UniProtKB/TrEMBL annotation:
Organism this protein belongs to: Caminibacter mediatlanticus TB-2
Keywords: DNA integration
Transmembrane parts of this sequence: none
Protein name: DUF4102 domain-containing protein
Domain Integrase DNA-binding: 5-92
Pfam families in the cross-refs: Arm-DNA-bind_3
PANTHER family xref list: PROPHAGE INTEGRASE, PROPHAGE INTEGRASE INTS-RELATED
Family according to the record: Belongs to the 'phage' integrase family.
Claim: Hydrolase is one of the keywords in the record: no
Length: 128
């Protein structure tokens, strides 16, 4: 079993030739050296197929060990409920994007109405 990661262990890992190091506190959480970056990732068995799968949590040091552990624990909770973390993350990102698009349209509509306010008159403008 892997030892619990500490900042000292991470610093040692960064200076070594090793490509990845796992956390003993949260199973599946690991720090991985890629060609141009160092990332936190969570390794798990895909729901349904049981195929080994990775999901990127974020870049190190932008994401701290504490935050990476919290996110990995959330992913473990999703798995316990039969929800694939990659699917959940993708759906969440799409929902955020849709919400941003709505806000953008709403903002553009209000700007348009402000521009047309003088043309249609104050009384009619308030009906919008």
């Amino acid at each position: 079993m892997a030892n619990n990661l500490t900042q000292t262990a991470i610093n040692s890992f960064l200076k070594s030739d090793r490509k990845k190091i796992s956390d003993g506190m949260v199973t599946g959480l690991r720090l991985v050296k890629k060609s141009k970056s160092i990332i936190w990732e969570f390794r798990y068995k895909k729901v349904g197929t049981q195929k080994d799968t990775n999901i990127k949590i974020g870049n190190y040091p932008d994401i701290s060990l504490k935050t990476a552990r919290e996110i990995a624990r959330e992913y473990k909770e999703l798995l316990a409920r039969g929800i694939d973390p990659n699917d959940y993350k993708r759906e969440k990102e799409e929902a955020i994007k849709r919400e941003q698009e709505k806000k953008t349209f709403k903002m553009v509509a209000y700007e348009f109405l402000e521009l047309k306010k003088n043309e249609v008159g104050e009384k009619r403008f308030k009906s919008f």
